[in-house]
Each structure stands twice: as structure tokens, then as C-alpha cells.
């Protein structure tokens, strides 16, 4: 097989000849190839050599990965059942984590299909048709994603959890000191869910827009009348925004969700705020709620102050669900996901604090977290509740705009 791929052929020609490489190219950022029509239209316009240049990829390493995938597919028994990993990963860590998974799958004697997209694409692609799945046979074998709605919606993933389909096999029995010191227990008492890491929501304060107000240090202050029409919220970041709605409701009730709606000035993606640098303008928010990751890029602006909320950064956990019936076979993959190597990628490259005790998350001293807790998540129906809370929030935004 070595040396068979012609780098001057276009992507459509290559994927027609070697369908096995589609997943490799999709995981390298060419999501168009996941769609048959786009694979034809886009793929015919770009050679493999050009594609590597577009994404700043090492062409030789890319070819090695593609050839390894082709070889793996041709050497494995086609009748053998493959393992499928689906879900979404936060953008800053998607590529390095996917690369580690690709390396591991190359060592295994069975086929692994990776269907991992960037979290910015949302989860609709995964949720569509989910309610039509009748048995665990229709499910992927491993799911990885941040957020609460897919995993805890009683009509979606939770339906299969209640049937005892999933079981945590990470072997994680002790949490990182950052969480134990804060009194936050991310270990599922029923042993179904695995939590690998968290996405914390924090504040970025534009001091030029405070107009004499003190820098807010808590969610309680964000919800106060003083900061009505002053806050940018990550509405398009579905996982994090849903976590904010759930946690505000859990702590402050429906009135808190209404106040959050009144506080919102605009829905601004954190990357937009960082790009604009909070330039003085009539429509600039005084506070931007964003993932902790973005504060790294915002440090270059002297008028911006990063605040870790005194009552806790709202937590959107990165969950993993694994099929109990396949755990023994999948253990090498599960061990990788729960490894120190992956924990460091999450904590260091993404600023997504790892649950592993051996990883230094580099968080501010005495950092607190706001997390709804397992009893709340199992006692409520988060999927239905979130739809209700979103409607409540949108209504408050509309009233405030009048």
C-alpha cells in the first residue's frame, strides 16, 4: 500500500478509490467530505497536496495516517463489528485529541470509526433521529460531549441509561484537588457517566464600559438591576449556554432566568469579543460571559479584567458514555480518554480543567464551581426543562428590549 496515494489527485478521486480515508480527512478539518454532495463539489476542486496546505498539515504524516487507515480496513475482517465513537470536542482540543485516538486505533486489531465534530457545530447532527432508535444496537459505542441536554434528556440518551446500557469503565475513583477542595463531586454515584473535564464559564469585564459601576464578582451581581442590558451571553455556544440556564435556575429559580434575560445586551460569541478587543462603541457590553479558554487571548487588552466568579464558575462537564456490553473490548480506548496525556491536553491546551488528580489545572487559588449535582440532573428532565427555560429567557429578553 505504501506510496499508492497520488497527492496530485483531487479529494473526490482519492475518497472514491479509498473510502476509508474519508474519516481521516473529516477529522483533519474537511467536514465537507462528510456530506456526499459536498464531497463531490468541494472534493473535485482540491488536490490532496493543496488540502494539506490549506490546513497547514504535514503532508507526509497525513499520507501515513491515510495509508494506515486503508491498510487497517483491508486487513481486518470485514464481517467483524466495528467500534464507533461519536460526539463533539471543544475546538481548541479537537485536533490533538483526535490525533491521539487515531494513533491508538492504528494499534488495535479491530476497526474504529471516529465521528467527532467540533463543539461549535452543536449536537443537532447527533440528536436528529435519536428518538427513533429502538435498541442499543442503533447507538454508537462511545459518546463524548459537553453539555446536559443530549445526555440527560429522558427521551434521548437517558432513555438508554435507564435500561442499564452504559457503564463507566475509566477507573477514575478520585477527583482532582481543585474539585474536592471546592466540594464539587463529579463522580457519578450510580456509575453510569464518566466526566473527563469541564468547561468553566467566567467573566471578562470591559472596564471602559462600567460607567462608574464596580467590577462584578459574582453571578448574583450579574443578575442585579445594576447590570441590566450590560452582559454578552454565549447563546450560540449551546453546551455552555444550557449549563448557564440550568445552574441559574437551580440556584435562583425562574426569577433568576428572567433576570439573566434582562441582563443580556447582546448574544456575542467570545471569539468576536476577543477579536474586537472590546472597542469603545455604543453597543459594547460591559461583561462578556465566556469559556475560561478565551481569557488567555483577552489578556492582551489592558482595559479587560478576567474574573473567576466568587460564587463559582458555571460548569459544563465533558461527559463520556460507554456501552457496558462493549467495555471490555473498548478498554484501550477508554483508558486513553481517561489518561494523563488526554487530561493534560484538555487542561493545558484548552484550559478545560481535568478531573484527574495528577493533572495541574493551573486554576486561580480557591476557585469555586457552580454545578447542579447528580440528584438534580436525575430528578429533573433537563432536556424538557432547558426548552422551557430558554423560552422564559427569550421572553425576558423581548420584554427588556421594549
UniProtKB/TrEMBL annotation:
One of its GO terms (biological process) is thiamine transport. The keyword Signal applies. Residues 5-63 form the DUF1858 domain. One of its GO terms (cellular component) is outer membrane-bounded periplasmic space. Keywords: Signal. GO terms for molecular function: thiamine binding; thiamine pyrophosphate binding. InterPro entries: DUF1858, ScdA-like_N_sf. Transmembrane segments: none annotated. Pfam families: DUF1858, SBP_bac_6. The keyword Cell membrane does not apply. This is ABC-type Fe3+ transport system, substrate-binding protein. It comes from Halanaerobium congolense. The lineage of its organism: Bacteria, Bacillati, Bacillota, Clostridia, Halanaerobiales.
Amino acid at each position: 500500500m505504501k506510496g499508492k496515494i497520488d497527492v496530485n489527485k483531487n479529494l473526490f478521486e482519492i475518497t472514491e478509490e479509498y473510502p476509508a480515508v474519508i474519516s481521516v480527512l473529516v477529522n483533519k478539518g474537511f467536514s465537507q467530505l462528510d456530506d456526499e454532495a459536498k464531497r463531490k463539489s468541494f472534493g473535485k476542486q482540491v488536490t490532496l497536496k493543496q488540502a494539506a496546505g490549506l490546513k497547514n498539515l504535514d503532508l507526509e504524516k497525513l499520507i501515513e495516517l491515510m495509508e494506515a487507515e486503508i491498510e487497517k480496513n483491508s486487513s481486518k475482517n470485514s464481517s467483524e463489528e466495528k467500534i464507533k465513537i461519536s460526539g463533539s470536542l471543544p475546538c481548541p482540543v479537537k485536533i490533538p485529541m483526535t490525533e491521539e485516538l487515531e494513533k491508538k486505533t492504528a494499534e488495535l486489531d479491530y476497526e474504529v470509526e471516529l465521528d467527532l465534530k467540533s463543539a461549535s457545530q452543536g449536537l443537532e447532527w447527533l440528536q436528529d433521529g435519536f428518538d427513533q432508535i429502538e435498541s442499543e444496537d442503533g447507538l454508537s459505542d462511545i459518546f463524548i460531549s459537553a453539555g446536559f441536554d443530549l445526555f440527560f434528556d429522558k427521551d434521548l440518551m437517558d432513555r438508554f441509561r435507564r435500561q442499564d446500557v452504559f457503564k463507566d469503565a475509566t477507573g477514575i475513583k478520585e477527583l482532582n484537588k481543585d474539585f474536592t477542595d471546592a466540594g464539587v463531586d463529579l463522580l457519578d454515584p450510580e456509575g453510569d457517566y464518566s466526566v473527563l473535564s469541564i468547561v468553566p464559564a467566567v467573566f471578562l469585564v470591559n472596564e471602559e464600559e462600567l460607567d462608574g459601576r464596580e467590577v462584578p464578582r459574582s453571578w448574583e451581581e450579574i443578575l442585579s438591576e445594576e447590570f441590566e442590558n450590560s452582559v454578552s451571553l454565549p447563546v450560540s455556544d449551546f453546551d455552555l449556554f444550557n449549563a448557564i440556564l440550568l445552574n441559574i435556575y437551580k440556584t435562583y429559580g425562574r426569577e433568576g432566568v428572567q433576570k439573566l434575560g434582562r441582563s443580556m445586551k447582546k448574544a456575542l460569541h467570545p471569539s468576536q469579543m476577543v477579536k474586537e478587543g472590546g472597542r469603545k462603541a455604543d453597543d459594547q457590553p460591559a461583561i462578556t460571559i465566556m469559556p475560561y479558554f478565551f481569557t488567555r487571548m483577552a489578556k492582551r487588552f489592558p482595559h479587560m479584567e478576567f474574573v473567576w466568579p466568587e460564587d463559582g464558575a458555571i460548569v459544563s462537564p465533558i461527559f463520556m458514555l460507554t456501552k457496558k456490553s462493549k467495555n471490555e473490548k473498548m478498554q484501550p480506548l477508554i483508558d486513553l480518554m481517561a489518561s494523563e496525556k488526554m487530561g493534560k491536553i484538555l487542561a493545558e491546551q484548552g484550559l478545560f480543567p481535568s478531573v484527574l488528580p495528577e493533572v495541574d489545572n493551573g486554576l486561580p487559588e480557591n476557585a469555586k464551581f457552580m454545578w447542579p449535582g447528580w440528584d438534580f440532573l436525575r430528578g429533573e428532565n433537563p432536556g424538557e426543562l432547558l426548552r422551557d427555560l430558554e423560552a422564559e429567557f427569550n421572553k425576558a429578553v423581548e420584554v427588556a428590549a421594549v
